[in-house]
Amino acid sequence: MSKLFEMKEEYKLGIAHIDEQHAKLFEIGDRAYQLLKNTYSNDKYDKIVGIIEELKSYTIIHFKDEEEYMESINYKKMFSQKIDHAEFIGKINNVDISKIDHNQDEYIMEILNFIAKWLTEHIIEKDLMIVEK
């Protein structure tokens, strides 16, 4: 199957643990995409909920680590990063799980669009600035 979510070279900051965590976020997104593409699975509810829960817990770890790194280098735009991170966590925490059963594929697509847009835009527009000289 093709991959929609893939950690590309242009997304790498050159900070190993952050790049590894970004790759993990892409991998979680790709699992959601593969679930959407799986036409043999009629009831995807438990897997969708599992992906959302993993995304919730993993982003908290990732954002904490990323913010600690920014603090360690006295990154000047850390406040705007923290706001973005809080907005992402808020969005994921406000996912209405009761809506999943109505149209599972549509719901997976909403999640995918959100993750794809946020990940690529945030990494390219914000995270890469952390390492710019």
UniProtKB/TrEMBL annotation:
Domain of life the protein comes from: Bacteria
Keyword field: Iron, Metal-binding
Alphabetical list of Pfam families matching this protein: Hemerythrin (PF01814)
MF annotations from Gene Ontology: metal ion binding
Signal peptide start and end residues: none
Ranges where the Hemerythrin-like domain occurs: 14-127
InterPro entries noted in UniProt: Hemerythrin, Hemerythrin-like, Hemerythrin-like_sf, Hemerythrin_metal-bd
Family under the similarity heading: Belongs to the hemerythrin family.
NCBIfam families: hemeryth_dom (TIGR02481)
Descriptive protein name: Hemerythrin family protein
